[in-house]
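> forwarded from #structure-qc
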């Protein structure tokens, strides 16, 4: 898969995607350079976007990959070896989720999120504003973002409830 251009500034990458000493120690627990790169890429990706990269095909954002590659001094082309092992990608996601203390978006958090969206829908008119507030709320609560479709569906449902 060809890497995609990204929308993050250098300042955003440095402030959110720069690895701490603890991050580097965690990354180094992986066995090979391509696993170091892949784990680190997913770690930086989730810290920047509050979601994991899409799976099929593996989502590679060029700016994040380059930033991670430079920090680790590992050639970015090794991501192509990493993206072939779905089981490793999945194992790394679980480790990263636990490492960062993130919750999956699911039934257990849905009532809390619906309540938040409902309250925002009572205050705000624009869907894009509600969506931005909801993404901010999810990040603050340590809950991974759902798919864009799921989020739009939830917002639509809560906006209808708020109108009643």
């Amino acid at each position: 898969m060809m890497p995609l251009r990204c929308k993050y500034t250098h300042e955003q990458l440095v402030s959110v995607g720069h690895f701490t000493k603890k991050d580097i120690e965690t990354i180094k627990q992986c066995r090979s350079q391509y696993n170091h790169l892949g784990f680190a890429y997913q770690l930086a990706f989730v810290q920047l976007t509050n979601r994991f990269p899409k799976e099929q095909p593996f989502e590679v954002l060029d700016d994040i990959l380059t930033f991670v590659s430079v920090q680790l001094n590992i050639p970015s082309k090794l991501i192509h070896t990493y993206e072939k092992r779905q089981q490793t990608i999945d194992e790394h996601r679980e480790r990263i989720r636990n490492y960062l203390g993130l919750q999956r978006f699911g039934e257990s958090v849905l009532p809390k999120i619906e309540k938040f969206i409902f309250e925002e829908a009572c205050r705000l008119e624009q869907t894009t504003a509600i969506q931005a507030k909801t993404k901010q709320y999810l990040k603050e609560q340590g809950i991974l973002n759902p798919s864009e479709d799921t989020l739009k569906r939830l917002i639509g449902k809560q906006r209808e409830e708020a109108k009643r």
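QC bot note: Residues 33-49 form the longest helix (17 residues). The CA atoms of residues 111 and 117 lie 10 Å apart.
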